[in-house]
Amino acid sequence: MKNKSPEDVLQRHTVPIHAWDFHYEYLNELKALTADLKKVREISNEFAWNKKKLDIEERIKDEVVVITDLDLKIVFASSGIKKMTGYKEEEILGKTPRMFQGPATSKKDLKEISEAVKLQVPFEKTLENYRKNGQTYKCRINGFPVFNLKGEMSHFIAFEKQDISA
Prior knowledge:
Order of helices and strands: HHHEEHHHEEE
Oligomer: single chain
């Protein structure tokens, strides 16, 4: 067997710094997802949601989850909101989703969403929304009224994803 130089040994057993960066980023995403799920569970338990139809725990992995109260004030946004909009959750709490809309947002689509909210029915729309820096993006929104176990509506929940195909 050939003797190896110290440089050969070191090259074989080193890990690129980039691998650690990805690992660190992945761990941070897992921590954020865990924190998001905990907050959603707290809200759903407090208001006794019928969670079976919502599939939140699966959808929150790939979509941004925004929960509003009956006045459409945001009470929760998953950690992915920052990547999609540039806003941190604490910057949007207590505000309405209208903060993401602007001149390029379809008034017709907004009217249809408003009707769905009034009728307490699900809706799906792709809107031209605005990031914190003013740039627009296509946002696919799948919204649902959320009912408690007594059948009373307590919140709206929206599963949102940037639509890169539109």
